Amino acid sequence: MAATLTPAELILLALTANESGKAERAARISSWPFVAVGICTFQRTEPLIALLESIGAQTGQIDADVVILIVDNNPTPSVPKDRVRHSTPYNVRIVHEPRTGLVHARNRLFELAEETGTDWLIGVDDDATVAKDWLAQWVQGTTKMQAKILLSDIQLTFSDAVSPFIPQRQFAQPAEGKPPRVLATGNYAISREVFARNGGLGLRFHPDFNHIGGEDAEFFLRAKRQHGIVLSGWPKARVYEEQRGHRLTLRYHLNRTLCTQMCGYYIAALHRKDHILKKPRPMAIMLTRRTIKSIGKGLVALTSGALTLPFDRSLGKKTIGIGLEHMTRAYAVVPYVFGKASRRYGVVTSTSTEPPQAG
Predict the structure, then answer these.
(1) Which strands make up the sheet holding 128-130, listed edge to edge?
(2) Which end of the chain is flanked by fewer CB atoms within 10 Å, N or C?
(3) Measured between alpha carbons, how far is 209 from 215 in angstroms, rounded to an integer?
């Protein structure tokens, strides 16, 4: 009977026939690779629908069987299933993960990808949209590149309401086949050899970062440092992320800079504790050097910005903004040393302000 079904029908059968995780791999049914587009979402219905519509509008040659996996990361289900399934021609599977937080959501996505027999998990943020050839480029990249983790390009867009002190810089674009400078889960592809517990390494995001962020950088660095996995850039699969609302404010921008710097310190401490760094500098020396370096850069930028203001107000304000970024990074050592961690994601069920137990 299986021979009379199309590959797409067989994929859907594999996804729905057994919810206990024993679904037969679609790769055994079709000669094409089985690719899952993974999306973790938290109360962003309209951006999610816009993302799915951009995925549904894909062009180019997509030589893969494709399914979309959505983790609804809310205390109660909130993803409108009918709207979701009508917004894309691809088969969609939605699961509810009630334990809110980035780590819970992303690890549930790994489990779901393994259950469905995914060869490659392609992840994208729920508030992004994708280029028209995004999926075709990812299929090409996962076939061409030898690396088991690929990171691609994220283009930021800003409205006129953005604070004049925000520099509006783009992320460093990853070069093809080169180690990427930005380690983030906004646009990535991971082989099942990395996330699968059966036949793979079974890597997961670390629970210490569930509420504060930084779980993506920690995951990628652990994969590289502890397991020797090559991280490779693949710039051709582009996504677009619009900065809107509070993200356009200087307060949000500096707070995110502060949290990112603190997470870097927590990662460094955790990897020292787990002995996965080769001959690391003592934490005290690393903290001192980075703080002094940030203060120096901050003072230079603030002075340069102040001197530029009378001649070019726009450039002067952006330069001052860069100086404030550096000074914020310098200040990050204070809350880190005193154990103050900002809880940015998920539902806080305790009044505790304890930071991650990284060291």
Answers:
(1) 128-130, 239-243, 154-158
(2) N
(3) 5
